[in-house]
Amino acid sequence: MSAAIDFDKYEVVIGLEVHAQLLTESKLFCGDSAAFGGAPNTHISPITLGHPGTLPVLNRKAVEYAIRLGLACQSRIERDNYFARKNYFYPDLPKGYQISQHTAPICDGGLVTIPVPGGERQIKLNRIHLEEDAGKSMHDQDPSFTLVDYNRAGVPLVEIVTEPDLHSSDEVYAFLTTLRRLVRWLDVCDGNMEEGSMRCDANISIRLKGETRLGTKVEVKNLNSIRNVKRAVEGEIKRQITIVESGGTIMQETRSFDAGNGTSFSLRSKEEANDYRYFPEPDLAPFHLTDEYLDSILKALPELPEAMVQRYVSQYGLPEYDARVICDDKATADYYEQVASIIPAHKAVANWLLGPVKSTLNEQGAAMAEFPLPPAALAGLIQLVEDGKVSFSIASSRIFPELLQHPAEQPLDIATRLNLLQDNNANNIAPIIDEVLAKYPDKVAEFRGGKKGLMGLFVGEVMKLSKGKADPKLTNQLLAEKLK
């Protein structure tokens, strides 16, 4: 019987290369559409196809988006930029080379702060650089041939390259989740890994704890979701440690992950670094970024998620958990901000967004950006509850659905029309209480004998008989008096 493998004696070292497609309308070096989808080879032109005599022209908006991300990651922005030719041949790279950046990335260094058990950790970035995407080879469309769709060729990308600074699949998951939130927050990328607008390759190695020299690196590609990146990293760590423990040698190679069965397989060995024969792109002039231009982008940056979380805790008195969930999505945070500026019940606003609003969106499969209710309408409904005119139960189950159907109608008018306004007249509630107590004489005796938890039963029965209209506070007060 073989001895159990001691996985804990190894340290894992992981670096990530994340490609994020920028949300520009056109491609990086021409006016062809950069939109996802479309019939194959319809978003193309002689420039996309690299025809002789065609010249690229730089997309200014792509440069701005790259700088926005770099500033948010505290990178140093390179003022003097140029593009380089990265020479390699693939069928889906029409020119036979890719226009990228080499020795002077537009964003140098930087960091991304991720949550870890017990606090936070800053993951160091090596660079963020601009480059064009390749097309897409399709091997399952024809039994005899590989077909190529060039719609994606030339779409602007930023490549975010970390240092080998991650040490577990959980940290990788946290990093990608944080990065996806950030690119969406900045409105520079939609972060949709399933559509390929955010793609990740993971470089993974292992070494004994205490070692300082890096182990042999294996790159895992073709990861189409954050969950699958985590699964692939976990599988590769286990594979490498098992090889070493059995006396084998880890080969430097590129592997692909099969999400169906959770395993990876070798694509090609990488004994030596590829020689891409970089040289400055002769068809594009170098470009200089002025301080005024960078300042204008910096001033236009939105408040970043972490800063907003801390402000919601200090300014609005929210629990950190509520603040983090709200700030996980910019549309939700913006909506919360608008409602909270109308009414002072800031915790109640959070409860509504994380409760009825979120449940409704989940049922509809919709995003917060699609929520139809104006902030003032939700604020009006919450205020009805805060003023004691309706209970939360009635507001969420009866008025809220009606308000979604008629967002222009006032919540108070809906409550009045449906006869849902809370009854705070003791003369109306007292007879209902008498009826409930008469119905449960044994429970009354138990209550008076010390089972105070039965108060909830009595209140619930009163609410039921009053069709939810009895004022809960007054009901509790009157019940307490009658049960003495």
UniProtKB/TrEMBL annotation:
The protein's enzyme class: ligase
Keywords: ATP-binding, Ligase, Nucleotide-binding, Protein biosynthesis
Catalysis performed (reactions): L-glutamyl-tRNA(Gln) + L-glutamine + ATP + H2O = L-glutaminyl-tRNA(Gln) + L-glutamate + ADP + phosphate + H(+); L-aspartyl-tRNA(Asn) + L-glutamine + ATP + H2O = L-asparaginyl-tRNA(Asn) + L-glutamate + ADP + phosphate + 2 H(+)
Sequence ranges assigned to domain Asn/Gln amidotransferase in this UniProt record: 334-483
Pfam family of the protein (one): GatB_Yqey
Protein EC: 6.3.5.-
Recorded coiled-coil stretches: none
Ligase keyword on record: yes
Gene3D superfamilies: 1.10.10.410, GatB domain, N-terminal subdomain
PROSITE patterns, alphabetized: GATB (PS01234)
Family according to the record: Belongs to the GatB/GatE family. GatB subfamily.
Function: Allows the formation of correctly charged Asn-tRNA(Asn) or Gln-tRNA(Gln) through the transamidation of misacylated Asp-tRNA(Asn) or Glu-tRNA(Gln) in organisms which lack either or both of asparaginyl-tRNA or glutaminyl-tRNA synthetases. The reaction takes place in the presence of glutamine and ATP through an activated phospho-Asp-tRNA(Asn) or phospho-Glu-tRNA(Gln).
Quaternary data: Heterotrimer of A, B and C subunits.
Identification of the protein by name: Aspartyl/glutamyl-tRNA(Asn/Gln) amidotransferase subunit B
Organism: Chitinophaga filiformis (Myxococcus filiformis)
Name of the gene: gatB
